[in-house]
Amino acid sequence: MSTTTRLLHCPPEDVFDVLADGWSYATWVVGAARIRDVDRDWPSVGARIHHSVGAWPLLLSDTTSVEAVDEPHMLQLRARAWPTGEARIVIRCEPQGDGTLVTIEEWAASGPAAKVPQPVLDPALHARNVEALKRLAYLAESRARRHDDSGGHGGVPRLRRPGSAADPRDEA
Prior knowledge:
CATH architecture: 2-Layer Sandwich
Radius of gyration: 16 Å
Number of domains: 1
Distance between the termini: 43 Å
Largest sheet: 7 strands, antiparallel
Helix content: 10-25%
């Protein structure tokens, strides 16, 4: 399993707001070329992002689905990119001081990629996830900088997901 961490200078809620915006997936996930659709209940368990990976004209269209979620602390995904296989990704957001320590754990779960020895696969996954966390940091930290003086959520409305309680800071 490849494990990559980065300290982001924003609260876990700002990080999770980016994770919960399925349409932003191709902005921070290295290799995702475009988003074709996002299930309305993303990031609920079973919800999917319909994406394409690769570079034109060599694009593979597949899906990433949510296997588990503990907002705003953890999101577990199963990313498909057949014929190469499927990966399992766990993203953890742990408060640390004024920021959030974000950890991405990723491993090949099935298909041809799962046959590659982990010591061979890990350096490539780690390098990709270093860049992914850099991009995620740009998005989440930018959101955090937009916080207004009234203690609201950056003047940016929080995403309202089915079954999620309203953030009391939104009412300010």
